Amino acid sequence: MRKINLTPTEEHKYQIIKAVVAKRKTIKRAAVELQLTERHVRRLKQAYLLNGKQVFQHGNHRLKTHQKFDIKCKNKIVMLYEKKYKN
């Protein structure tokens, strides 16, 4: 099993839903704290019970951005800037 790394926002949501599952908080209180509807809190609770902590991790978490430059391309641009197009 891999370690789930959550952002602070996702971690906060996870802790509150975990408290709802442990019956330390009500669904109504969790909805107010997360600024979500009670229906959505119930959905999060159900998803957490089925799939665990990974439910709170964003779907694009492991994907690379398409806008990021390849390191070789970046180095070539810097080299051209420094040598050929100096002025």
Structure description:
By secondary structure, this protein is an all-alpha fold. The protein is 55% helix and 0% strand. The chain has helices spanning 8-21, 27-34, 38-51, 71-82. α1 packs antiparallel against α2, α1 crosses α3 (38-51) and α2 (27-34) packs across α3. The N and C termini lie far apart (54 Å). The mean pLDDT is 88.
- Total number of β-strand segments? 0
- H/E element sequence: HHHH
Structural class: mainly alpha
Largest sheet: none
Distance between the termini: 54 Å
**Average pLDDT, all residues:** 88
Overall geometry? elongated
Strand content: under 5%
Unreliable residue runs: none
Oligomer type: single chain
CA radius of gyration: 22 Å
The helix fraction, in percent, is 55-70%
Total number of helices: 4
Comma- or semicolon-separated keywords:
single chain, mainly alpha, 0% strand, Homeodomain-like domain-containing protein
Layout of SSEs?
Layout: H1 8-21, H2 27-34, H3 38-51, H4 71-82
Helix pairs in contact: 1-2, 1-3, 2-3
Write a compact overview of the structure shown.
This is Homeodomain-like domain-containing protein. This protein has 87 residues and is an all-alpha fold.
